[in-house]
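Attaching the record inline, Q. Sequence:
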Amino acid sequence: MALESSERPLWEIGLFGGAARLPHYRGSDEYRLYVLPLPYIIYRGEIVRANREGLKGIFWATDRFETALSFSGSPPVDDDNDARKGMPELGAILEVGPGFKFFITERGNPDPLYLTAGVRTAISVDTDDFGTAYRGIRGGVKLVYRNRTWLEGRRTTLGLNAGIDFANREYNDYIYSVDPGYAVPGRPAYRADGGYTGFSVSANAVKKLTGRWSVAAYYRWDNLSGTAYADSPLVKTENNHIIGCALIWTIFQSEETSRYQSE
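Structure, as predicted:
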């Protein structure tokens, strides 16, 4: 397995104080501000790696390819959403499944460019009784660029992502369908299809203030034009804009180093 060019601590433990303005769901014109202090663990192992975005297991890797088990998710949608008034709440969604990464630049490049793709099973979690239910399959392809050298003197890392997503009928049905029993004037009955679910572009920056403190900023644009559920009465806008920021405190880190990255 090829190694990265720069060494970092094998593990880090810290506190991530973040704030993000998120739509209730893709296509909603209603947003919620989340402000959460969260502990985080970063681990840069050969087989298992974790960062502030989640955990993954590396099953196979070469100079250009890497396969992994990855995780994702989204928060619940309460009954305070106007478009879904009178409809059941949406539970938090957890996603898990296989993915792979293809490095376009050499694997050890400090400014890597790579493609990621994955397919994940979605499971909803009821926040009242913690009951779970299968909600379909979701996946996508994303082009990712990280730059560590352009603003190296300012101790800043930049990132750019662009990607497209797909989901099957069950997944889209859970979020965007309207059963006849919940149809009202302005919200007719609707059954969502599977297929293309959106295009997104995002940018992020992380600036290291000291050896223990960093700040981060994030922006993402989601576009739903031409999606399989674009004509759902629950879709109120074709564009969502997501912003977030964070203050990151690294409390502990190992003396042992690793040349594997956690991204």
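The chain has one domain: 8-258. Residues 1-5 have pLDDT under 50 and may be disordered.

More tomorrow.
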